[in-house]
Automatic annotation (TrEMBL):
Domain AMP-binding enzyme C-terminal: 550-628
Major enzyme class: ligase
A single GO molecular function term of this UniProt record: acetate-CoA ligase activity
Region called Disordered, residue ranges: 1-30
UniProt family annotation: Belongs to the ATP-dependent AMP-binding enzyme family.
Enzyme Commission no: 6.2.1.1
Species annotation: Natronoglomus mannanivorans
Protein name, per record: Acetate--CoA ligase
Domain AMP-dependent synthetase/ligase: 103-483
Sequence ranges of Acidic residues compositional bias: 1-15
Swiss-Prot/TrEMBL keywords: ATP-binding, Ligase, Nucleotide-binding
Taxonomic path: Archaea, Methanobacteriati, Methanobacteriota, Stenosarchaea group, Halobacteria
InterPro entries, per database record: Ac_CoA_lig (IPR011904), ACAS_N (IPR032387), AMP-bd_C (IPR025110), AMP-bd_C_sf (IPR045851), AMP-binding_CS (IPR020845), AMP-dep_synth/lig_dom (IPR000873), ANL_N_sf (IPR042099)
Domain (Acetyl-coenzyme A synthetase N-terminal): residue spans on this chain: 43-94
């Protein structure tokens, strides 16, 4: 990668930056409010008063083959059921009804490959190919309720396969393409999945990656027979050879050209898909999502929070291999009949302005990404977005981890042109959709705080005994009533479902069920929630409990710092001490004065108790393939312990480098 020089954060508009730096709250622009899908703050009260019937607003965004009888059934809590008696098909909701409503020629998916080739599927095209592939899957033997594993990168055949599965009532289990062969095998075995759809390869930074080889290796670890289909993404670039029992996607489509497949009416509570969580911690969990509740919730949050309208070009720059891509590239946006963008490659190929070039070229209205990406853009500098006209943007969003105020303000200024609200959306694989965020047409934004719980969501911050805590104090995030998008169980493991999420704060005797997402949080006087990170990311220094995210936010607030990770390492006297790993912006030397400014920054923001024991400068942090920092490795390094499993890391080589830097500074 080319070296950039100079201070990348003040680029001629230092005055503006200085003003924004002091500003704590931001209101959505009038022009946004005027056109917002939800602009009336009465919605919070409306949902509270009519709960759970308020959720009919979500269900009404869909077309049902059979109207539901009951909104919520809670007899067997926490195994809740939503919209019972109702029947629907997800692919019909994402495709057929739009085609019938006259949107046949509207773009449904606009795809761009890394090398620049483009493909546009109208709603009509997408429906045709989904029907053809659905017919092919049936011919291969796929029956209703069979789990089909999809191991594919960001190519249009992935959403096509998802919708084809949904059409015939076969739940899909998407395994992120960056995952290893072992990860594929584990997930296929866990789900007893006898069908695999994969591809020959894909492009990353201009290189053709051989994906098929990895898929084949994974298949050798599967303990039952598998029928597989291979998509030819690379043409001649890689030898597109098929294994013994593999079928060629293009041939199947040709054989089933023009096929029509009636969408199967699924019970609202039938499984739509299975999604294994990224596994930042422990064994992967097979999260089960349903057809009626999940799809209503994905559509509702896309409507209310992302403000999606059919005429928009909407871009969630996540990977479909994560829940974010399921809910906010595929199901939510397509259920609303909008144009959803997909990009195959990396944001810095061939240049660091690739995403902004795509925004300009496609006139993107709504852009949704992760804080880790925003911090990378910030590190690269604002000259890249400045090369492009980003004025088509109306709304920005973030998800995945807390966004520190400095990155928030950079996003607001340099991408949003100070004219787009930002929704900082807290949610999880398990919640199916967004839970805590401002409504962009209603709420004041506070950088660093996700916002209030969405209408109808009863999120509260409690102490260890489950008592609600005072505004300002740190505690544990809980959700005290169910919602339609919630996971129904962990696949074939009800016991673990209860133990993971419901044991901590529920009172089984009195049938009071409290969902525990395992995140720490605090709340302010306005009811805004700031997420502090996973509960196991709390450091206990001499009896004081410190949130790692809060310290990280203080560090990245220091001029010249691009990214930071904070963990607790064992300390003889204090029990635990604060260890910080810091990436500097390009051109910034890791001098002693930098170290001092970081220590001061933490002391000023949190107090001397949080004073870092050690500041380690590093060019990268160990990250999972979903871009999350793997803190337990950094903890092992800080405590000088033997390192745990590094197999899910994207950059395992960095671990040795950090270890060397720690021993250097001793
Ligand atoms: P695993 O559960 O397998 O360890 P994971 O929790 O990283 O993996 P996800 O479901 O993708 O898998 O991530 C959800 C978590 O991400 C949340 O519990 C929270 O810790 C964090 N998160 C998501 N969005 C936000 C946000 N806007 N602000 C703060 N944290 C967030
Ligand atoms: Mg999690």
């Amino acid at each position: 990668m080319a070296e950039e020089s100079g201070d990348t954060d003040t680029d001629g508009d230092g005055e503006l930056e200085a003003r924004l730096a002091d500003q704590e709250t931001f209101d959505p622009p009038e022009s946004f409010v005027e056109q917002a899908n939800v602009a009336d703050d009465g919605i919070y009260e409306e949902f509270e008063e009519n709960w759970p019937d308020c959720w009919e607003r979500a269900a009404n965004l869909l077309s049902w083959d059979q109207e539901y009888e009951t909104v919520l059934e809670d007899d067997d809590a926490p195994f809740y059921k939503w919209f019972t008696g109702g029947e629907l098909n997800a692919s019909a909701n994402c495709l057929d009804r739009h085609v019938e409503d006259g949107a046949k020629n509207r773009a449904a998916i606009k795809w761009e490959g890394e090398l620049g080739e483009t493909r546009t599927y109208t709603y009509g095209d997408l429906l045709n190919e989904v029907e053809e592939f659905a017919a092919a899957l049936r011919d291969l033997g796929v029956e209703e309720d069979d789990v089909v594993t999809l191991y594919m990168p960001m190519i249009p055949e992935l959403p096509i396969a998802m919708l084809a599965c949904a059409r015939i009532g076969a739940p899909h289990s998407v395994v992120f393409a960056g995952f290893s062969a072992d990860a594929l095998a584990t997930r296929m075995n866990a789900a007893d999945s006898e069908y695999l759809v994969t591809c020959d390869g894909y492009y990353r930074r201009g290189d053709a990656l051989n994906h098929k080889e990895k898929a084949d290796k994974g298949l050798r670890g599967v303990d039952h027979e598998v029928t597989s289909v291979v998509v030819d993404r690379l043409g001649d670039e890689l030898n597109h050879f098929l294994g013994n029992s593999a079928h060629d996607y293009d041939e199947l489509i040709e054989e089933h050209a023009g096929a029509s497949v009636e969408p199967v009416s699924r019970d609202a509570e039938d499984m739509l898909f299975l999604m294994y969580t990224s596994g930042t911690t422990g064994q992967p969990k097979g999260v089960k999502h349903t057809t009626g509740g999940y799809l209503s919730y994905a559509a509702w949050t896309s409507h209310a929070v992302l403000d999606v309208k059919p005429e928009d070009t909407y871009w969630c720059a996540a990977d479909i291999g994560w829940i974010t891509g399921h809910s906010y590239i595929v199901y939510g946006p397509l259920a609303l009949g909008t144009t959803s963008m997909m990009y195959e490659g990396t944001p810095d190929y061939p240049e660091r302005d690739r995403l902004w070039e795509l925004v300009e070229k496609n006139g993107v209205d709504i852009f949704y990404t992760a804080p880790t990406a925003i911090r990378a853009f910030m590190k690269w500098g604002s000259q890249y977005p400045e090369e492009h006209d980003l004025s088509s943007l109306r709304l920005l969003g973030t998800v995945g981890e807390p966004i520190n105020p400095r990155a928030w303000k950079w996003y607001y200024t340099h991408i949003g042109g100070e004219n787009c609200p930002i929704v900082d959306t807290w949610w999880q694989t398990e919640t199916g959709g967004m839970m805590i965020t401002t409504l962009p047409g209603v709420g004041t934004m506070k950088p660093g705080s996700a916002g209030p719980p969405l209408p109808g969501i009863d999120a509260r911050i409690v102490d260890t005994s489950g008592e609600q805590i005072e505004a300002g104090d740190a505690g544990y995030l809980t959700v005290q009533n169910p919602w339609p998008g919630m996971l129904r169980t962990l696949y074939q493991n009800d016991e673990r479902f209860l133990a993971e999420y419901w044991q901590e704060y529920s009172d089984e005797e009195s049938d009071e069920w409290v969902y525990f997402p395992e995140d720490g949080a605090k709340i302010d006087d306005d009811g805004y929630i700031t997420i502090l990170g996973r509960v196991d990311d709390v450091i206990n220094v001499s009896g004081h409990r410190l949130g790692t995210m809060e310290i990280e936010s203080a560090i990245v607030g220091v001029e010249g710092v691009a990214e930071a990770a904070v963990v607790g390492g064992s300390h003889e006297v204090k029990g635990q001490a604060v260890y910080t790993y810091v990436i500097l912006e390009e051109g910034q030397g890791d001098s002693e004065s930098m170290r001092e400014r970081i220590v001061e920054g933490v002391e000023d923001a949190i107090g001397p108790i949080a004073r870092p024991e050690e500041v380690v400068f590093t060019p990268e942090l160990p990250k999972t393939r979903s871009g999350k920092i793997m803190r337990r490795l950094l903890e092992d390094l800080a405590s000088g312990e033997e390192l745990g499993n590094t197999s899910t890391l994207r950059n395992p080589e960095i671990v040795d480098e950090i270890a060397a830097r720690i021993s250097d500074s001793d």
